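@here heads up, posting the sequence + SMILES for the flavin-adenine dinucleotide run so it's all in one place. Ping me if the SMILES looks off, I pulled it from an old spreadsheet.
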Amino acid sequence: MAETDFIVVGAGSAGCVLAARLSEDRSSDVVLLEAGGRDNALIVSMPLAWMQVASTPKFGWGDVSEPDPNLDNRTQPLPRGKMLGGCSSINGTMYIRGAAADYDAWRDAGLGGWGYDDVLPYFKKAETNWRGAGPEHGGSGPLDVTPMKTHPELFPAFLETAGALGYPATDDFNVAQPEGFSIPDCTISHGRRHSTARAYLEPAMMRPNLRVETGAQVRRILFEGKRAVGVEYEQDGQIKVLRARREVLVSGGAFNSPQLLMLSGIGPAQHLKDMGIEVLHDLPGVGQNLQDHPIGLTFWAAAKPNTFESQLRLDRLAANLVRWMLTGKGTPAQSPLTIQGFLRSDETQERPDIQFQVSHVSYAAQPWFPGWRKGAGHQISSGAILLNPASRGYVQLRSGDPKDLASIQMNFLGEESDRVTMREMIRFQRRFFATAPASSCVAGEMAPGPDAASDEAIDAWLRATAMSAAHPACTCAMGTGKDAVLDGQLRVRGIEGLRVVDVSAMPNIIRGNTNAPAIMIGEKAADMILDKSPA
Ligand SMILES: Cc1cc2nc3c(=O)[nH]c(=O)nc-3n(C[C@H](O)[C@H](O)[C@H](O)COP(=O)(O)OP(=O)(O)OC[C@H]3O[C@@H](n4cnc5c(N)ncnc54)[C@H](O)[C@@H]3O)c2cc1C
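bot reply: prediction finished. Complex structure tokens:
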């Protein structure tokens, strides 16, 4: 029977890091099993195309939420990358770590070793930051972190507007207390997406002790008693078994990691029985505590023809694509984001609870050319992301068949406090665009439209349009209470030889995007497993 030391399930943001770091120890063999394929399609490497890649069925799992009772029973697509790199191969490339207080709260909840001072060395170890090495940044890690380019007209105007509203400018969001307005850093290297597959896995793939299998979907974890001893997976229509001499490490992401635990008999006992699955270990927290960041959007007509719409004229787009392919430069080399801000929705907040973003591109943007197809027009899109949602969703099995996708209830805006903050943030966006000089950059509010002024009208807009920022997390949460799935070493409680290493391990979602934290978790897990400290 095939055997290895470590099995890593899932080559996503965390899984690639974990497999690459574990295989640095040449005395251990590592097998990385990825359900999706390789990441070599050109479009995957193009930062500008991330929304298109994220909505292309062959690159993803195709998850769709259950009808959400708080959003008029609307379902929403929940893109998840299914290829080497996982979501780091389809994401918006924004590099944000969250605030020190996010991690200190994990530590203070009983998770020793997860405070900011403990995790900062791993953020630094991971990156080669364009600023060079320093107290907050690494200068020689695998992941290239580079600055996003600013829009020469709109960025200064929006920065000045933020100042007029009392918000400071910042030159780095990846510090202990991120706050204020600027433009974010990105995981882009020489104009190409720097996924964890590119940054970590590719350089490690030649190692004789690392085997990477694609098209290999793990169906269940195998146990002897309560010790994980291997996995059963499907590849090329065949069911295969692989044994792990040391550990099985699940890095399937926020939906698939809890799904795999439940398919393997670990989870809420009654739910497993309902699905016809033999219960190995009753762990009620598996799949619960789902947290994500909802976005509330507004759309504006631009006052001048100075948005990304001009770049979408087919001849310009084609010329830029050729330039990017040859030099890595030009508009395809980054996302058109105009400005970002971390701000407090009101003065009682101890730290920013909103991530505000403005983009000089319409959500309906598409290539255009006179006489061929009309464009969306010059528009500005704006969004406020709720960073500390009180609402909790859950992941359950749809059936005991590993081929079925999980059932996902986001339960967005289920709590009144979330609705109040999101409502105020729609009003904040209006204040922003009513303040000079941003007021001179827009010609009017397109949606929800000035008529949507009452609480009821704004709530209706949010129910109809609020969407996920694609940061689901916390579904196999570390902790100390009865609902905790993992201990502080990422080990599944009550089971030996099994850890979950991805964003589902977060006890509470951090106040920022989740790729950098996933990478940090992968880095830290490798050291925990190999009993090392950060070098
Ligand atoms: C469209 C989109 C945009 C985003 N934009 C940003 C951004 O700009 N900045 C940011 O910081 N974050 C962003 N995120 C979020 C961030 O990318 C994710 O939170 C992060 O990548 C999650 O990492 P992970 O390791 O937990 O899981 P994933 O990266 O999802 O990895 C899971 C991997 O496991 C594989 N897998 C799952 N089940 C199995 C199985 N049974 N057998 C084998 N393999 C399996 C999957 O195919 C996948 O490759 C975005 C996400 C999306 C979807």
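MO: Residues 452 and 458 are 6 Å apart (CA to CA).
MO: One more: The longest helix spans residues 416-434.
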